Amino acid sequence: MGKKKAVKSSTARAFRKGSRKQRAAQSRESSSGTGQMQSLEKLKRRHELFVKLAREKIAELESIARKELGKEKFRKISSISEESERAEALFRALTNLVEREIASLERIFDRASEDGKSSDAVFAEVKFILARSKLEHFKVSCERKEFYKIKGLLNEVKKELKDAGIV
Q: Where are the domains of the chain?
């Protein structure tokens, strides 16, 4: 009897192994489609939340953009008739403006570290890292106060780099 149980269990194991592979293949096929659907749904939800937030903050975004963007860019964006698209365009324009400044400062820091002058501007580098994290917060909150904190930090970084003789 002991041998028969062993045979039954070994054949059952072999059957389960084969079926496990088949089940895994089937689950991969089915989950790849559902995974894409889930990520698409997540993106749609994020976009809906962003549009809702942007509609609430469109007046703030417009006042910031009026001061920070050029006249032509602001006119083009203001001419967009749909409110959610206009809010998204304003938001993207403002974040791109700050991201460009951050990228240029990052190149300056890279050159300074290659030249061995990075120790002269330690506080500038700390403020630069803080400005990056503040940008991520601005992307979530869309508040005027956050935007001007970022701009202030970047201006302080530029000033300290000039004082250190790096720029």
A: 2-164
